[in-house]
């Protein structure tokens, strides 16, 4: 459940202490990610502050049944990166109509958070060469065709969990 | 419609979209297909989780000493986005005939498309994207064929309405065909309903007859 409670505290109570902790952990990682992706340290610093500001402002949009906090922060940072480095629009999928239920099931939340942790462990256990390639891909150092040559990503069961949640949602809608 | 999708995005496209390395036109195809396909939505979530772990377990860089203070100051100026849940519900209550990312590029629904004829009854409309690849809508009347063409690069074709067949298979609404340089094909719309596709390519198409090739510079395909 790492960091989920922090985002909820920011959303519900505008908790600055929780924000300071999440900032302390993620901001240096986001900054390094942006620098690895080709931004200058100055620009990376500025963009990281913007990414963390977005985390505060959009805390109500975070759905812990669909993603971990690190996944969410990554998507925000990636979109900001495309914005500044390529200066083009980023088409995003249509939101799903997540029914009237405001709060996701606690069990669903736990499963997704656990599965993400397991994915992280599986990535850490990869041979260095393969791990290196995955990191390079997300730093934007591999072209689309170089990515196509990659195989054997240790993807776990996050997909099937999310798929189950989507199926349940579709049934509720009909 | 969800169950009928049989042709999906491949891992390279989903990972490329997640990593942010695809041309804008390809991003549009991915976003549109994911809007229509829960299977690929779930697979994309997994690739985003990989990205999350790359950030979470990657290196760290030292922040400026006043970094947190400046961020809090920025937050104090504009504390939180209004909850746009109501707005989103309304947008979903009035769904168009094409996914929202495509509507965003058209600037409206299909009736707002400014079609141009490209011969054989086929019409197309180029959508504004970055120059490293191009995206266009194709309107193929029922029973008609798109001119026989090969590709210099990769061509992605997403069916938005109707269905087409080519030398490889049948593609219905939500299906995406990934065609590489070695595929020389002639898509034909099925009888019964006009077929509307979103196609993206990272290289100019090579038409196998004289007329379309001459027209190519004017059509921007």
Please give the structural blueprint.
The complex is a heterodimer of chains A (174) and B (221).
Chain A lengths: L3 H10 L2 H21 L4 H17 L11 H18 L19 H19 L3 H11 L5 H5 L9 H16 L1
Chain B lengths: L10 H9 L4 H13 L1 H20 L9 H11 L7 H9 L6 H7 L9 E4 L2 E6 L6 E7 L8 E3 L3 E7 L1 E3 L4 E3 L3 E4 L8 E2 L5 E7 L3 E3 L2 H10 L2
Antiparallel strand pairs in B: 1-2, 2-3, 3-10, 4-11, 5-8, 5-10, 6-7, 6-9
Overview of the molecule:
The complex is a heterodimer of chains A (174) and B (221). By secondary structure, chain A is mainly α. Chain A has one domain: RNA polymerase sigma factor, region 2, helix turn helix motif (Rna Polymerase Sigma Factor, Chain: A, Orthogonal Bundle). Chain A is 67% helix and 0% strand. In chain A, helix 1 packs across helix 2 (16-36). The longest helix of chain B has 20 residues, at 38-57. Chain B has a single domain (1-221), classed as Sandwich (Jelly Rolls). With 221 residues, chain B is α+β, with helices and mostly antiparallel strands. The two termini of chain B are 30 Å apart. Helices cover 36% and strands 22% of the residues of chain B. Chain B is elongated, with a radius of gyration of 20 Å. In chain B, strand 2 and strand 3 form a beta hairpin.
Please write the CATH class name of chain B. Answer: Mainly Beta
Instruction: Work out the helicity level of chain A.
Output: 55-70%
Describe the largest sheet of chain B: 6 strands, antiparallel
Kindly provide the name of the CATH class of chain A: Mainly Alpha
Helix run count of chain A: 8
What would you say the CATH architecture of chain B is? Sandwich
Number of strands of chain B: 11
CATH topology of chain A: Rna Polymerase Sigma Factor, Chain: A
Roughly what is the average pLDDT of chain A, rounded to an integer?
A: 88
State the domain count of chain A.
Answer: 1
Oligomer: heterodimer
Using the CA coordinates, give the radius of gyration of chain B: 20 Å
Describe the global form of chain A.
globular
Low-confidence stretches of chain A: none
Biggest sheet of chain A: strands, sense, closure? none
Question: Strands of the largest sheet of chain B, in order across it?
Answer: 1-2-3-10-5-8
- Beta-strand content estimate of chain B: 15-25%
Spell out the helices and strands of chain B N to C.
HHHHHHEEEEEEEEEEEH
């Amino acid at each position: 459940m790492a960091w989920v409670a922090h985002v909820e505290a920011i959303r519900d109570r505008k908790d600055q202490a929780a924000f300071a902790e999440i900032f302390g952990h993620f901001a240096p990682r986001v900054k390094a990610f942006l620098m690895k992706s080709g931004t200058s340290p100055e620009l990376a610093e500025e963009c990281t502050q913007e990414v963390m500001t977005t985390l505060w402002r959009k805390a109500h949009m975070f759905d812990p049944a669909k993603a971990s906090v690190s996944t969410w922060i990554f998507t925000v940072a990636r979109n900001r990166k495309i914005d500044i480095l390529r200066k083009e629009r980023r088409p995003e999928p249509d939101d799903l109509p997540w029914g009237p239920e405001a709060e996701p099931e606690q069990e669903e939340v736990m499963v997704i958070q656990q599965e993400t942790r397991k994915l992280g462990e599986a990535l850490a256990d990869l041979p260095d060469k393969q791990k290196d390639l995955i990191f390079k891909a997300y730093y934007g150092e591999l072209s689309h065709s170089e990515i196509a040559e990659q195989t054997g990503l240790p993807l776990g069961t996050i997909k099937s969990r999310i798929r189950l949640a989507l199926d349940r949602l579709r049934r509720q809608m009909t | 419609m969800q169950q009928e999708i049989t042709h999906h995005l491949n891992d390279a496209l989903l990972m490329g979209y997640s990593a942010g390395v695809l041309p804008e036109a390809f991003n549009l195809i991915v976003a549109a297909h994911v809007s229509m396909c829960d299977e690929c939505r779930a697979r994309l979530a997994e690739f985003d989780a990989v990205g999350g772990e790359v950030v979470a377990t990657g290196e760290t860089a030292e922040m400026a000493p006043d970094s947190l203070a400046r961020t809090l100051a920025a937050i104090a100026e504009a504390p939180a986005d209004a909850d746009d849940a109501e707005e989103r519900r309304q947008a979903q209550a009035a769904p168009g005939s094409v996914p929202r990312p495509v509507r965003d590029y058209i600037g409206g629904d299909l009736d707002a498309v400014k079609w141009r004829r490209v011969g054989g009854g086929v019409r197309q409309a180029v959508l504004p994207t970055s120059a490293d690849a191009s995206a266009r809508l194709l309107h193929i009347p029922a029973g008609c064929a798109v001119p026989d063409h090969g590709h210099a690069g990769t061509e992605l074709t997403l069916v938005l309405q109707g269905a087409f067949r080519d030398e490889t298979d049948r593609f219905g609404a939500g299906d995406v065909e990934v065609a590489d340089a070695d595929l020389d094909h002639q898509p034909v719309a099925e009888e019964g309903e006009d077929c509307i596709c979103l196609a993206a390519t990272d290289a100019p198409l090579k038409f196998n007859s004289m007329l379309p090739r001459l027209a190519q510079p004017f059509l921007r395909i």
